[in-house]
């Protein structure tokens, strides 16, 4: 077993222990509740754009992107575009032709302008409209038609009904392994 494999095995064991630690879970939940109340996730940027994500989620996403090596990343919900820039920069590091497709019901002009002038925009396409509108879903499915490895990030309207409809509309784009 290599040193790296040993390290990964130890990490997996530690994660199991951490996952069963009730005190750690309570402390983590309390921290999340307080952090959410103070808009903690609003205070970060990626390559000059507000990302509105938790740093640990950003790190986890780069691990997923590196492991999957997607051809296409679809994100519902654009906000300021930091996540689009993040995903595009990860695809740039991987190499190849990977692309990011962002969908938002309201892409504000100042955000669109900043995203479009960013050096990572070459890997980004944006669609304005509701992610659950039939015509938008059809456009997304057509865009993804020949992509083998698709990642789907649902970060728009966080209601149960909306996310369920997004899953119904887009889950067929995601294959095993991504």
Give the topology, please.
Layout: H1 3-19, H2 22-37, E1 45-46, E2 49-50, H3 55-68, E3 72-76, H4 82-94, E4 99-104, H5 109-116, E5 124-128, H6 134-143, E6 150-154, H7 160-170
Helix pairs in contact: 3-4
Structure description:
By secondary structure, the chain is of the alpha/beta class. The chain folds into two domains: about 1-40; about 45-175, Rossmann fold, CATH 3.40.50.150. About 50% of the residues lie in helices and about 15% in strands. The chain is built from seven helices and six strands; from the N terminus they run ααββαβαβαβαβα. It has helices spanning about 5-20, 20-35, 55-70, 80-95, 110-115, 135-145, 160-170; strands spanning about 45, 50, 70-75, 100-105, 125-130, 150-155. The strands form two sheets. It has a four-stranded parallel β-sheet with strand order 5-4-3-6, sandwiched between helices. A two-stranded antiparallel sheet has the order 1-2. α4 (about 80-95) links the parallel β3 (about 70-75) and β4 (about 100-105). α3 packs parallel to α4 (about 80-95). It is globular and about 45 Å long. The chain starts with a helix and ends in an 8-residue tail after the last helix. The mean pLDDT is about 95.
């Amino acid at each position: 077993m290599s040193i790296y494999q040993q390290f990964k095995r130890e990490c997996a064991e530690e994660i199991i222990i951490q996952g069963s630690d009730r005190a750690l879970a309570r402390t983590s939940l309390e921290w999340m509740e307080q952090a959410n109340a103070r808009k903690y996730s609003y205070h970060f940027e990626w390559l000059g754009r507000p990302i509105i994500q938790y740093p640990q989620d950003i790190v986890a996403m780069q691990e997923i992107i590196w492991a999957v090596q997607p051809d296409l990343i679809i994100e519902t919900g654009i906000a300021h575009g930091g996540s689009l820039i993040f995903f595009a920069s990860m695809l740039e590091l991987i190499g190849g032709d990977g692309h990011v497709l962002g969908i938002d019901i309201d892409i504000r002009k100042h955000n669109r302008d900043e995203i479009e002038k960013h050096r990572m925009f070459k890997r980004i396409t944006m669609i304005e409209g509701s992610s659950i509108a039939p015509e938008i879903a059809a456009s997304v499915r057509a865009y993804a038609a020949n992509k083998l490895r698709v990642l789907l990030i649902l970060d728009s309207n966080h209601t149960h009904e909306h996310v369920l409809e997004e899953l119904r509309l887009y889950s067929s784009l995601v294959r095993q392994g991504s």
